[in-house]
């Protein structure tokens, strides 16, 4: 019944993008279209989540072609959760950028390009989440990448072009890896349907499986910014306009994480790369956060914490246990929300304080207590302070790790090391964010000149030097959008119990690959 | 699975050449490298369809076993379209970065104040040049009044004066009706 709704989550944003492009000269109409479309998708995603959770996954065969031949769209619990959270994020960030656009006469985010590109980006993200075959997943990635190229180089300033070039070339290379992997997988199995692959790949010789598996992991690892494939992220994200950075940081890397989850659970059921993933997860956490320590610029600092916290998700995936996936999915949801919120707050800080470097910001708490609250709550949340969702997610992951270590004594030492790395990373995150808080919010405005502190001794400015922009007004709409997201992060904490139950059911779905197969092939597989 | 050796060799050459060009610093070469590798991947996909057969159109009297695998062809088509779009965007990006490298951020800034100052300068030039023209003509008339036999020589020197004077930037020289005797 609700299966009818599934294609709409991709179709509506695409049609909306076309309409928005036609309405290029009518700003209000264009904003109404994009806000309307994303609100509709949010509602549809919520309906899908409820229906999928109560009555099983929704499968759509596009054009009536049956599974291995046609394009299949599958929404199971994991997809539905990802759809809901990303639709909410996209909607809130759109409200934020509308507020910003109205205040700045659309200088930063010119509507005629921004809104269509933004909607296409949404379509790509949603398409990746509901794709039932590898090639459709690739198309979803390409849609969101092309739109992200445009959004990242908005305005075409020298700084953005330079950052954009790195991002674009890295993304293209990752796409080529993905496409080659698809070609080889098709050659080996004769199908790209994920459900069918789940059965056929398991029949291949072990070394062929491992090669295909690693090729896919490299492609997704670049997109998810996993160490050592994460070098591009801190150089490219911070230069974009605040709402664009927020969406990229929140969603794009998580699409990669989602693809890795699918790869590990459904596609490669036999091939086992637990140790590799665990080592990479631990290294991603530590190296990412050590990079964050030396940054003076809050945008770059947050980009490094973004890389670092991807490590937690990789660790959770590596555990591949019921509790591990439960905590990973919860952590993905938490991290999407909190990282987006922090980047939106950074946008407000930049407008209010005229800079993003801790060497140039001071006295913000006295000037705007509300801004203080909007930064403080997500910062503590990211740092993993109880009772916030970051703490709950990390606790879940560490518990799952402990369980795994007890169950598998051979790799127990490795698991404990990664858990320790996770705890250290969490503390260093807290340190980096508290330092920013101390300098930007608590330091008096008059102390800014000639201020010396051990805290500032080791920080590096952004490569282009810290830019100081004129302070601008902070429109009500932007503050409202950011506050709404802070409320969402608090809701993740308050409703953690039901959410953990939901992600637990999603994890149970994931661990039973046969379930996914029988959903796509109700009549059995040939 | 049967694969054509020619295509395998072609794919390998394209991969190798593309990757080595992609490692260059220049953006244009990176784009060319991307195109070569992209086509290598397309050939790789095409290779996966196995032995070539009839055109994959299932009509009456066509043996489904004899036609070639249509799916890789569909993949390749999609990939080509995506590559085309990306290439167009990359070309725009390269042009933009060339523009910025040549002119800097000033290339596309038309400052209001600078424009007004330029206009004022042009107007001043115009006034100055018409004043100088008047002066030259006056000199000419005076000279012709005093010394009728040096007329030609003086006229020539006056013309030299006119020509060596820095020209008013871009402004059309005003024609003075008094210039013709």
Class per helix and strand makeup of chain B:
mainly alpha
Number-wise, the strands of chain A total: 2
**Share of helix of chain B, binned:** 55-70%
Please tell me what the overall shape of chain B is.
rod-shaped
Percent in strands of chain B = under 5%
Written overview of the protein:
The complex is a heterodimer of chains A (526) and B (181). Chain A has a domain at 273-494. In chain A, 73% of the residues lie in helices and 2% in strands. Chain A contains 20 helices and 2 strands. A two-stranded antiparallel ribbon of chain A has the order 1-2. The radius of gyration of chain A is 22 Å and the shape is globular. The mean pLDDT of chain A is 87. In chain B, 67% of the residues lie in helices and 0% in strands. Chain B has helices at 5-22, 27-47, 70-103, 112-146, 151-164. The model of chain B is unreliable at 167-175 and 177-181 (pLDDT under 50). Chain B is built from 5 helices and no strands. Chain B folds into 2 domains: 5-57 and 65-108, Helix Hairpins (Orthogonal Bundle); 112-179. The longest helix of chain B is centred in the C-terminal third of the chain and has 35 residues, at 112-146. Chain B is an all-alpha fold and 181 residues long. Classes of the chains: A mainly alpha (526), B mainly alpha (181). At the A-B interface, α5 and α6 of A face α2 and α3 of B.
